[in-house]
Design a protein that fits this description.
The protein is an alpha/beta fold. The chain has 22 helices and 12 strands. The structure holds arginine (ARG).
Amino acid sequence: MLILKKKTAALLAECVASKFGEGLLSEEEIFAGLEYPPDSSMGDIALPCFKLSKALRRSPVDIAEQLRDAVQCEEFASVEAVKGYLNFKIDPTAFAARVVADVDRLGDKYGSPMNGEGKTVVLDYSSPNVAKPFHIGHLGTTVIGHSLKLLHEFAGYNCVGINYLGDWGTQFGKLIVAYKLWGNKETIVDGGVDELVKLYVRINNAIKDEEDASPDKHSDLADASRAEFTKLEHGDEENLALWRWFVDVSLAEYQKTYQLLGIEFDSYKGESFYTDKMPEQVNKLRDMGLLEIDDGASIVNLEKWNMPVCLILKRDGSTLYPTRDIAAAVYRQRTYNFDKAIYVTSAAQSLHFAQWFKVVELMGYDWYPGLVHVPYGTVSINGAKLATRTGNVVLLKDLFAEAISRVYDITKEKHPDPEECRAIAEKVGVGAVVFYYLSNNRMRDINFMMEDALSFDGNTGPYAQYTYARTCSVLERAGGKGRMSDAPLGEVEFELAKCISRFPERVSAAIDEYEPSLVTRYILDLAAAFNRFYHECKIVNCEDEAVRESRIALTAATNQVLRTALHLICMQSPEKI
Ligand code: ARG
């Protein structure tokens, strides 16, 4: 539709120039005035001419009538002037033929805004904290982040996906103490990150017990943890080796989940990488007179921008989360020369990003407008709360495993070969979780319901994939891709063609608003349009050859667009379910 809308605007701009004179209204202005009427009996595209009357100094009725006489385009079945509106009715057959031809010509590029060429985007997402659980709270950053990467790639941007691992900080002091006290190498080799988390949980509980027992005294374990972390910071060999091992064990575990989701990162430079890159930025802040000392700590005062102070150095001189983010952004700008740097985190971190973005601006870095924070809401499971320190969390890998095993049980009768069944269950199970999550506006708080996510007849991932598989089976039976003939098309086919034509607009909006859910909802619209077409129209069995060919061609176009759209939200498109 967008293409036709643009075409209509161009056409009207010419008509306005020839009827009323040059330079009165630009194509963009006319484009902005065009509407999709809510009731298609009024036309498929409409121009409310009162919006032009000021510029053209005429009545809307007069404008509408004069333009009606001037406009000519084979894709319109009729152009009518009604009460100051210019209503365009599209010719379904010509329109569908053009849409299908576009899909055919562009293939898996159909829908791309193609405006990213020569530009670089770095995306910082997923970024779990090593040795803490990789839990359902990370689902958002992982799948929104990856979908944004795929969307930008689709638009032609050069994309760099960065996993900014939380691989540094006092938690490693605790973990080292816990490991030395209670740990065992084999257990961790066998049990992986879960065992690290157990140690982490155990020491946190032990510290809490110590603090509860003698509230006025420092916890010995907490002191020991700080001491071990300081040793680590000073390059103690034993601690460094342990730290590297903890990171490797954790990463190996995360990789399994990334693999299920088809995610690969271009860089795993975590927080530890920036240790020696912070002093330069701290010195610059100091030299520029931006640092103030507040109760011993070094801060940047952001009162003028209505934000609390941004902490740069603690009283003991150690660096903080914002310090590292500033150093990392500078490093990334120098390394990748990005046009945009996107950070996907929970909305709980919005203030943190607003603060350090402002500090980067104050430091005079002219690339600060390219910094984008993309926040998202909270996730709970069947109402359950999440807590890291107590270990009472739903792990991402368990969530996916559960979804996969349930799909396996549902599909095992249809697919007796266990390997084939397992492969399908993985695609469908993982897809169900992703689709469910990405169906909502990212800022909405979500309560995850596995039953709902896995249902085959709701607005779910399985339903979307099933529809895709259905297009595959129709095409297989048809034995070809069909071809648009000039047989007249009915309402249902026309609606499907219109839906296919809307894909480019939805993709652009998803990129502009950093909102993958727009693609998810588009998939549901397209699936609904196709299923209606499938139920109401004979496709392969249609007796009229010309109509049959057109219908097969529409199915092939749907198949292409569904595959592209599913890919953009990190989903696979199995040909059979
Ligand atoms: N590791 C952090 C966390 O789990 C997220 C990091 C987000 N990225 C960043 N550049 N701060 O909360």
